[in-house]
Amino acid sequence: VVALAGRALARLLPLLLLPLLVAVFQPQGEDGKRDLKLVLLAAACGTVISAAVPRLHLSLIAVAFTSMIMLSVAHLQDLQNSELEQAVAGQSDLQSRLQLRLDEQRQPESEGALSNFFPRASSRRSAAEIVHALRYRPAPPETDASAVQMETFSIVLPCAFEGEFAEKTVWAIWENTDHDRLKEIIVVDDGSNPPLRAIMSEKLLAGGPGVPPMKIVRHEKTMGLITAKKSGGDSALGDVIVFFDCHISPRKGWEEAFLKQMKRKGDHRTMVVPTITSLNPDTWQEIQGSAGGKVCYIRWNNDFTWLIYPGRDAPLMSGGLLALTRRWWEETGGYDDKMVAWGGENIDQSLRSWLCGGRIEVAEGAYVAHMWRDASNPKTLLKYPIPTADVMRNKARAATAWFDQFVEKVMTFPEYEMFTKFKQPLGDMSSFAALKKKLNCVPFTSYLKRFSYIYVDGGLIPEKVFQIRESKSGLCLERRTKHNPPHDLVMASCSGMTEGSEQSEQQLFHLGNRDVSTSGKKCCSGIMHWNFLQCLEGHAKGQAIHTVECEVGGEVSAQRFHLQDSAQGGQFQWRPKTGWKEGLLQKHTADGCLAPQEPKLGKPVMSRPDSCSVVVEEVSGSQGLTDSDGHHVPSAFRLRGRASTGGCGAAVFSSGDSDFEFQFVACDEADERQTFHANQRPGGFEIRPSKGKGDHCFDSAGGNAILIYPCYA
Q1: Gene3D superfamilies this protein is in (predicted)?
Q2: What domain range includes position 509?
């Protein structure tokens, strides 16, 4: 009886043991409870093992194996739920950072050195971690199994009032393209007056052997660049649609470089762009050695600028020169048919591709010379107006369609007040929702993740925004804009220091630009002006610092600045040098540091003896000298203006050939630059500055001015 009972218990052991193991070791939910369904499933599996496996040791192996699988699935599910919760929290965190309002900026402390405004480490996750958590990777859009042919080209030229440039462009394409590849050149005459057909040559219009296969699509009135490109793209018959401007000349081999890049991935969803060089409008030849732009990137005001050192992937097309398969054109819907005139279509089309399963790449070896609009050359100027309101509406449509919740950041910029403040409509946006559903498009955060080397490492998503105050004067660094860059930097009263006072955007800065001296080139190596993509730049000691457009790749040494914390000295270093110090890799030296430029109270000039306004003030403890007439001359002295605001003479460092200038600045007895020394020489005295090179002396400059110049032997 005992033996039978033991065997029966052994057969029932899997039924009891398996649900017990699952119940004990499965992860608990937020409420502390365990998943009863998983325990019941374990009991069912235990019943099957008890019935199917009579031997005890085999049944125990089956129990162990089954419990491992079930517990692994349970822990994996718990991990996925946890990551999803973190992603939701992270999305809110990133959104709040991007939508930083002025009243949320970090307020400067009333006292303290520059180090008080150095961004301290945050307990929040980094921007890179947040964007990574938000990235969504769906399956690519479904396509049928048939391969897409990429053999023939339809080239679309949108031409409005281009005159002779249109025919020159057609012939340049024909002469520099494999004729077997060229199915057609579609010239979209966008309301030109006179019509392009009326001014083109009979040979080109007649066609035939040795003549470009051109066809003209005519708009009787000017509809704008976007509509012209859409008309041309919709009428194209080639496998590949190429959009060129109506004033270009490609370099031989461009079409094969396009096809090689488009076929790289093995599908039809790769768009390509060439390297863009400059075209001479008189000779219609490429200007040799002209710099080549390739791709751009989107700024937070939904404008764009050139990316100086791009890789293969193009974050944003410049707009005018690109190629894509006709199938991808049709699947993505071409251009937004509610956009008019010009502007914003490149942003829309780029995001359609990146977020909906496609990609944009640089076609290495493809060069296209482009005629740029030159204000000094009237023949290159645009011949029709571009309404600013239409451009801004196009950009607002693109941002609203693709930026998700981050469109709120875009709309904080004043150029969008017509939509935020004055509530002007954007038009019907339903086509975007249909396209996103059709192509299973991903969120905008996926784009930020893919190009995190720009937005995170380049500093466009800053950890903190701060003011920079000079400790001695208590003034803050402020950007003063000019009509054309570079823009000036001045010291001004710190804004937002009292409750209710307005914070000035011109005083807000943050870290920016990649640091090429570090592994992975993470952020940051420069100082960026908040919201304006302007970075501090300096070129030589003694020269003023300005702001220019940031080179987010960190390759421009003139834009490298480092804010030391108080333990390091609190300096604002220019071109810091990295090295090993006390076993750690640190920025411990620099080519220079920032300091306020000495305010000039006046320059010394030669005057009549009865009108001199400066007196010699002997420095305490100086030795007396005697001139040839027996007059007392102090060996060390200051030059003080008689007026209360006259200031004192000083040897101020200059970037000029003489290294120093004689200026009148605010009097300060502790300032060694304001002390001068007299050395007796035959026939008079030699005056040398106390601070600076010992071989420099006062020079009368022929009686017109006073210089500090190398002494004569």
Answers
A1: Spore Coat Polysaccharide Biosynthesis Protein SpsA, Chain A
A2: 476-593
